[in-house]
TrEMBL record:
Residues 46-73 form a coiled coil. InterPro entries: TPR-like_helical_dom_sf (IPR011990), Ycf3 (IPR050498). This is Tetratricopeptide repeat protein. Residues 1-22 form the signal peptide. The chain crosses the membrane at residues 89-105. Keywords: Coiled coil, Membrane, Repeat, Signal, TPR repeat, Transmembrane, Transmembrane helix.
Length: 287
């Protein structure tokens, strides 16, 4: 475009110079019907336009050639890149295959067998770990279930025992009371209170030796239960074992000082009224 503008400017300059030269060369007095320089100027302009078209065609040809060379160069570089990449891949494959051969993996079958063996070994290890974890979970669940069942059974037994105790408190028949205490002991053979209260009822029925045996069982189950010593003292006093009775009375009062208030009220101790130790206990309580 710049060359075209320069050529157009040059043509206008030449036209101006031609006009000036014609005015100087032709006298004013001479009359010319048509200018003599017009065919030359037209020829000059046509030549210049022809030259301009030739230059433009040459420029287009040069541009097309350069574009073709650029495309050819890009294609060539792409081909070289593809070739180099393919060669590198083959080199890598060849190197990997060589390494596998050097490590002892002679064929793809051996590779597959080794992979399968490795996977199977790892799967077996994981399976064993999961099985162990499942066994642990099952064991914990079993223990927890047993604890829950034991707790439910304990609650049920407690409710049954509580119901039987309420029945025993309302029952007036001594034999029926013994039957209720036996039901409590059937649920819990180590129920110390049931043994002691059964011994007390047996005392009322005249079964003193049986009451003494039950009191001994209660003390064996719970050596800190004061009423068991008190009940045994009652049985011993009825059987004439005064020394043993006074000793058990002393133990019962040591474990439960409130029992001092019952010394004079207990009818089973009537045989101990003349015993000096029993008298000392009564006098100490009264004082």
């Amino acid at each position: 475009m710049i060359k075209q503008y320069l050529l157009a400017g040059l043509m206008f300059a030449l036209l101006g110079l031609g006009n000036a030269y014609a005015e100087e060369a032709i006298p004013v007095s001479e009359s010319i019907d048509e200018p003599l320089y017009k065919p030359f100027i037209e020829r000059y302009i046509l030549d210049e336009l022809k030259l301009l078209r030739q230059q433009l065609q040459a420029m287009r040809a040069e541009m097309a050639e350069k574009v073709a060379e650029a495309r050819l160069d890009a294609s060539d570089r792409a081909m070289r890149y593809t070739t180099d990449t393919t060669n590198n891949i083959f080199f890598i494959i060849t190197g990997a295959a060589s390494i596998l051969v050097l490590l002892g993996w002679r064929s793809l079958r051996e590779v597959q067998e080794n992979v399968e063996a490795t996977v199977e070994r790892k799967v077996s290890k994981l399976t064993g770990e999961y099985e162990q974890q499942l066994h642990d979970v099952e064991r914990k669940l079993k223990v927890r279930s047993e604890q829950i069942l034991a707790a439910q059974e304990k609650i049920s037994e407690t409710n049954q025992i509580h119901s039987l105790w309420m029945r025993a408190g309302l029952e007036s028949s001594l034999h029926e009371q013994i039957n209720i205490y036996d039901q409590i002991l059937e649920i819990n053979p180590e129920e110390v209170e049931a043994l002691t209260y059964k011994a007390d009822v047996l005392m009322d029925l005249g079964e003193t030796r049986w009451a003494l045996s039950l009191s001994n069982q209660a003390i064996e189950h719970d050596a800190d239960y004061p009423l068991a010593y008190w009940q045994r003292a009652c049985a011993e006093a009825e059987l004439g074992q005064q020394e043993a009775a006074v000793r058990d009375i002393t133990l019962a009062i040591e474990k439960s000082p409130a029992l001092k208030d019952e010394l004079e009220k207990e009818s089973a101790f009537r045989n101990l009224q003349d015993h000096p130790l029993f008298t000392a206990l009564v006098n100490d309580e009264v004082g």
